[in-house]
TrEMBL record:
GO terms for molecular function: oxidoreductase activity. It holds the Pfam family Amino_oxidase. The chain crosses the membrane at residues 180-204. Keywords: Membrane, Transmembrane, Transmembrane helix. This is Amine oxidase domain-containing protein. It comes from Paramagnetospirillum marisnigri. The keyword Hydrolase does not apply. Residues 16-396 form the Amine oxidase domain. It comes from the Bacteria. The keyword Transmembrane applies.
Length: 407
């Protein structure tokens, strides 16, 4: 094994992949400098105070499952786990077309054994199979596999890779009760996954620079919008950036990576947002909205693979999703209360076969510069788990410490 590297580790991008790499390296004693273009950390997974709602809201409601072990280890290592709540492994659904309601638990899956085995990848799943071609004929498609596909892969089942879906289903359904536990964020994403990481970095003496955008990277250094940093022989860099940011930073080295949007509507209610059974979330079937999330007096609606909704005016989106939310939780029809519509146009990659196959690994043409991010080659789709695991993997490469972990 190569000797441990001792120079400065420059990490560009303070999304979860960059924070993960920075925390892992700083905890191992490495000098870390983190550079971020925005005025805040968290990237696609962050909270902010919304002036109109006068509440802390997330750019989009997120869930982590117990199967996301690297994400939970990172949250534990930074102290962020205290701001997360494990809920019962139960997924309530409401069908807005028929009015029927049901709850999926580890002991009451909505599908028969044959369908479950097909979803898990048995018999063998062909590369070209989509979630629709593999599971679309089954009785439980609309009630379970479709909402799971949209939530996990953020990709319509007609194009979503059945292989990747099967892998995530195996991690969740074959991992015991703990793997299916949904962890929620009662104080917001940043309180759990961002602020504790920044505090941890501060305690290890890491430097953090906001509003510093990387323009170019070459074998000798990093060019930012406020100056250039030359890399010494022991220095390393991790570019924890999404693919669309890397096309100009590393010209000619990045494949084109199609993405899919997620739209979130946040409504400020007059009183606490209450979902049936006191659940933190509710899946919707036969509806434009996919999941409702309740946090305090804010009711949020998530729509994945939201290509057409993302093009509609915010007022239309709010009216449509509020009407559905009222029907789902039994509120009288009314015009929407104060709302905020968040359109994350490049929320994740499109998880179709071709895009998945194009994902590169963490190495670049420059031996001292590595990549990190949810979109790099991995069995996971673009998720918190993928981002954090990728950051850790790149920190191992950049520090030449294969055993680096959050334990
Ligand atoms: C609405 C929404 C809902 C989601 N729901 C879930 C969920 O329920 N569960 C789940 O597991 N995952 C979910 N995800 C996915 C998850 O949020 C992402 O996979 C993860 O946050 C990606 O982290 P990242 O660090 O790889 O990338 P990013 O978050 O994109 O971080 C990249 C960082 O680099 C910075 N940057 C960009 N260009 C430059 C530059 N030139 N110089 C310096 N800095 C730069 C950016 O500002 C950003 O901070 C969701 C995503 C969205 C958008």
């Amino acid at each position: 094994m190569s000797a441990t590297v001792n120079g400065t580790l420059h990490i560009v991008g303070a999304g979860l992949a960059g924070l993960s790499a920075a925390v892992a390296a700083a905890r191992s004693g490495r000098k870390v400098v983190l550079h971020e273009a925005a005025g805040h950390a968290g990237g696609r997974c962050r909270s902010f105070r919304d002036e109109k709602l006068d509440r802390i809201i997330d750019n989009g409601s997120h869930l982590v499952l117990g199967a996301n072990r690297t994400a939970l280890a990172y949250a534990s290592a930074t102290g962020g786990l205290e701001a997360m709540i494990p809920t019962a492994p139960a997924f309530p659904f409401a069908d807005l077309a028929t009015g029927s309601r049901w709850t999926v638990t580890p002991t009451s899956l909505p599908a028969g054994l044959g369908e479950i085995l097909r979803a898990l990848g048995l018999p063998w799943t062909g590369k070209a199979e989509t979630v629709k071609s593999r599971l679309g004929g089954g009785r439980s498609f609309t009630r379970f596999w479709l909402p799971m596909c949209e939530a996990i892969l953020n990709t319509a089942p007609e194009e979503a890779s059945a292989r990747m879906f099967a892998w995530t289903m195996r991690r969740a359904l074959l991992g015991g009760n703990a793997a299916l536990i949904p962890w929620v964020f009662p104080l917001g994403l940043s309180a759990a996954l961002v602020a504790p990481a920044l505090a941890t970095l501060g305690s290890f003496g890491a430097e953090i620079h906001f509003r510093r955008r990387l323009l170019a990277a070459d074998g000798h250094g990093l060019t930012f919008d406020d100056g250039r940093i030359e890399l010494g022989p022991q220095d390393r860099a991790i570019l924890a950036l999404p693919p669309w940011a890397l096309t100009s930073v590393l010209p000619g080295q990045m494949p084109e990576m199609p993405t899919r949007p997620i739209v979130n509507a946040h409504f400020r209610l007059d009183g606490p947002a209450a979902l049936p059974g006191g659940s933190h979330f509710l899946g919707l079937v036969n509806a434009a909205g996919h999941w409702l999330f309740a946090r305090g007096d804010v009711l949020s609606v998530t729509v994945s693979a939201a290509d057409s909704l993302a093009e509609r005016p915010a007022e239309d989106v709010a009216a449509l999703l509020w009407d559905e939310a009222c029907r789902a939780i039994g509120l009288p029809a009314s015009s929407p209360p104060a709302f905020r519509i968040m359109k994350e146009r490049r929320a994740t990659l499109a998880h179709d076969r071709d895009t998945i196959a194009r994902r590169p690994g963490p190495r670049t043409a420059h031996p001292h510069i590595f990549l990190a991010g949810d979109w790099l080659a991995s069995p996971w789709p673009c998720t918190i788990e993928a981002a954090i695991a990728s950051g850790l993997a790149s920190a191992r490469l950049a520090t030449a410490q294969a055993r680096l972990s959050f334990a």
